[in-house]
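Postdoc handover notes: sequence design on the structure in folder B. Input tokens:
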């Protein structure tokens, strides 16, 4: 199923709808509009770039690790606003026509540690573009394995936007998730099905800095007050997210689907869907 999804998007997304970001294109619009256009793109990209935990809340065991094929699809805001002829995404796109779906196929790695700790990382291609996202996290699970109450996990991670010489950007993320796993033995005992629903909340903080460009009237932005430039409101780059999902695992093979919505000040909410297929060892 995951491979089929990859193929559909590869065939359905022509190069003319690339999601590259070219800040030099901002020189063609009014200087008074450039920062607002950049801010809009950064918010959308940051919320799409850093996905929430899309796996069960219970941690992996000390001797367990997992490799997953992932797909994240975010729905960008590429329509012009008001009387504008183009959108912010169109204004920074090399072709002038941005794709409203940001599709990110990737690989994820997770490893269990003692005392219900866990670490992991991922890398994903931002299709169709020349950029990637690279991220890592650490988390701890409270009440892990107790059968009568849900698992609760606290996760801390960072995702970086790499491959674009014009833009240095990253997203810090703090996630709180709650979930429970139901074991369903099969007839004959040959396989066990694990049904694991989960819900959670994420707090995101983004930063971005234009680099290697000579475009006037654009400046760095940051969710951290100490890093924010004069005139930049750090609160605009702090986002709130809700997410939910489920994993259905048979023995060591698990399929997951989850959805999330992210809210930001002075920006429309962003919706995204995650699909993944993981194997435990």
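Designed sequence:
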């Amino acid at each position: 199923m995951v491979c089929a999804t990859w193929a559909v998007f590869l065939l359905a997304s022509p190069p003319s709808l690339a999601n590259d970001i070219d800040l030099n294109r901002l020189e063609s619009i009014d200087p008074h509009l450039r920062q607002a256009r950049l801010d809009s793109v950064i918010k959308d990209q940051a919320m799409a770039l850093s996905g929430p935990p899309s796996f069960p809340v219970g941690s992996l065991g000390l001797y367990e690790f997992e490799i997953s094929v992932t797909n994240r699809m975010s729905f960008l805001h590429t329509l012009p606003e008001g009387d504008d002829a183009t959108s912010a995404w169109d204004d920074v796109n090399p072709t002038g026509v941005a794709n409203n779906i940001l599709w990110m196929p990737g690989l994820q790695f997770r490893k269990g540690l003692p005392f219900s700790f866990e670490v992991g990382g991922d890398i994903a291609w931002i299709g169709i573009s020349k950029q990637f996202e690279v991220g890592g996290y650490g988390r701890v699970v409270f009440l892990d394995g107790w059968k009568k109450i849900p698992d609760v996990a606290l996760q801390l991670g960072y995702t970086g936007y790499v491959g674009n010489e014009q833009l240095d950007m990253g997203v810090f993320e703090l996630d709180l998730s709650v979930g429970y796993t139901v074991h369903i033995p099969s007839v004959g005992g040959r396989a066990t099905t694990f049904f694991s629903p989960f819900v959670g909340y994420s707090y995101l903080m983004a930063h971005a800095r234009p680099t290697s460009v000579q475009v006037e009237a654009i400046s760095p932005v940051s969710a951290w007050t100490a890093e924010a430039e004069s005139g930049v409101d750090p609160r605009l780059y702090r986002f709130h997210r809700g997410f939910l999902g489920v994993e259905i695992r048979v023995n060591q093979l698990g399929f997951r689907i989850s959805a999330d919505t992210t809210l930001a000040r002075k920006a429309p909410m962003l919706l995204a869907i995650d699909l993944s297929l993981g194997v435990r060892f």
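Context for whoever picks this up: Residues 9 and 158 are 27 Å apart (CA to CA). Don't rerun without checking with the PI first.
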